[in-house]
Amino acid sequence: MTDPKNIIAFQGVPGAYSHMSCAAVKPEMTPLACASFEEMILSVQEGRAGLAMVPVENSIAGRVTDIHHLLPESG
Predict the structure, then answer these.
(1) How far is the C-alpha of 52 from the C-alpha of 10, rounded, in Å?
(2) What is d(CA 16, CA 23) in angstroms, rounded to the nearest whole number?
(3) Within 10 A of 33 (CB to CB), how many other CB atoms are there?
(4) Where would you tag: which of 10, 37, 64, 75 has the fewest CB atoms within 10 A of its CB?
(5) This prediction's pTM
(6) Domain residue spans of the chain
């Protein structure tokens, strides 16, 4: 079993840009796919992951508004 400190959560499915970003930035960590931004944040808060890859801007759609509403409440 992987130590949760070595897990990085991301919103999306394996192979998504967020997954590739995790692999590029933290190749030593095991990616954890999450169905929603809320689940991604909870995975860190509950100790299932040590970090989360949080998108704040998208090159096509611009600002990721959902995450900007969740971050202030996430602690």
Answers:
(1) 6
(2) 11
(3) 17
(4) 75
(5) 0.80
(6) 4-74
